[in-house]
Write a structure and sequence with these properties.
With 361 residues, this protein is an alpha/beta fold. The chain is built from 10 helices and 19 strands. It has 2 domains: 149 residues, Glucose Oxidase, domain 1 (3-Layer(bba) Sandwich), CATH 3.50.30; 204 residues, Rossmann fold (3-Layer(aba) Sandwich). It starts with a strand and ends with a helix.
């Protein structure tokens, strides 16, 4: 079966279809990981996007459900250079194509992902569509892509956030409230190492969270624009109120939301940071380490007087962490739970635990 990939600049590529037979739209982005396609496909931060892997061979170790970061595939479509149709891994439960088909997600292979990556790096991410349906009209598909609203105009967080409070038991006494903007499973697992977790919807109010008597609040990763009007009216407002009451930690989108709540501003990056090989430098220690990242927005370096930049990205100098001069706040743009270093950023959860302990002292 043939498949089509159309971009808003008129680019039209033909390839081989895999996964479901359907047409899907989104913002095309690239991920530079050599492995981890199961984790990437189930990361809620990819909601509203078409995910393309830069590594040429994808699917060679099949699909292992224990690696999933959520219950379903989050991107609207998947783009690869070469699809492995006969994978091998002792824990594999299905092929990549079967996985996509089971979630009604289309995939396209045998396209020039190197050319597409260079195009996105030069011109920025674009609206796009993948069609694996046999009778797709080429001109109509391109026109649909051009006229479609950008995915970030939608409140994507509302789609991936939980719709009710969920509690996770732990033998630790501390209580962490996780504001779910699209939380990955591994963030929950890392939080459980330091305390019990209460997961709440993204639009939970500060008053409702304080009634849960948390020792700390973590604002999770997630998709879309942190300055979306509905996020500003809900999550940002809640975090601003909580910042004066309790220790806070923000990860990825949570970092951007926390920064907005403290008076900073955010902006859209040209093509974002997505992959497990992003170098970050701590400005206080001078130490550099490798991080996993997945985001299309960043915090502007011009901060209010009570904030300072704590870490920067060594590739482009963008803000990777902010520090409050007086409040117990920990905020990072990257994903400490993803462990690409493999354990460079893990101590951040212990730092959050110490913030909570100091606040209770």
């Amino acid at each position: 079966m043939k498949a089509l990939l159309a971009l808003e600049d008129g680019t039209l590529l033909r390839g081989e279809a895999f996964g479901a037979r359907t047409t899907a739209f989104g913002e095309i982005v690239f991920n530079t990981n050599m492995t981890g396609y199961c984790e990437a496909l189930t990361d809620p931060s990819y909601k509203g996007q078409i995910l393309m892997m830069t590594y040429p061979l994808i699917g060679n170790y099949g699909v292992q459900p224990e690696t999933f970061e959520s219950e379903r595939i989050q991107p609207s479509a998947f783009v690869v250079r070469e699809l492995c149709k006969r994978p091998y891994h002792v824990d594999s439960k299905m092929t990549l194509s079967q996985f996509l088909e089971s979630h009604d997600i289309p995939g396209i292979s045998d396209v020039d992902t190197r050319m597409l990556t260079i195009k996105i790096r030069k011109h920025g991410t674009m609206k796009a569509a993948v069609s694996t349906e046999p009778d797709t009209n080429l001109e109509e598909l391109v026109q649909e892509v051009i006229s479609m609203p950008h995915p970030t105009e939608t409140n994507l967080v509302s789609i991936v956030s939980c719709d009710k409070t969920v509690q996770y038991a732990s033998n630790k006494k501390k209580r962490i409230v996780l504001i779910d903007c699209g939380a990955k499973n591994n963030i929950i697992n890392n939080c459980l190492r330091i305390g019990q977790v209460i997961r709440v919807p993204y639009d939970t109010t500060a008053e409702e969270i304080l009634k849960l008597e948390p020792d700390g609040v973590l604002v999770s990763n997630g998709p879309g624009d942190p300055a979306h009007p509905e996020i500003l009216q809900t999550t940002v407002r809640t975090v601003e109120r909580l910042s004066r009451e309790i220790p806070l930690m923000g990860i990825c989108l949570g970092h951007q939301i926390l920064s907005l709540a403290l008076g900073a501003e955010t902006y859209k990056l040209k093509f974002g940071h997505r992959g497990g090989n992003q170098p970050v430098k701590n400005l206080a220690s001078g130490r550099a380490y490798i991080t996993s990242q997945n985001h299309g927005f960043a915090v502007k370096p011009e901060l209010p007087e009570d904030l300072e930049v704590a870490e920067i990205n060594l590739n482009d100098g963008t803000v990777e962490s902010i520090k409050h001069k007086s409040l117990p706040i920990l905020s990072v743009q990257y994903h400490p739970e993803a462990s690409p270093g493999p354990h460079d950023a893990n101590p951040l959860f212990e730092q959050f635990e110490k913030l909570m302990e100091a606040s209770r002292a």
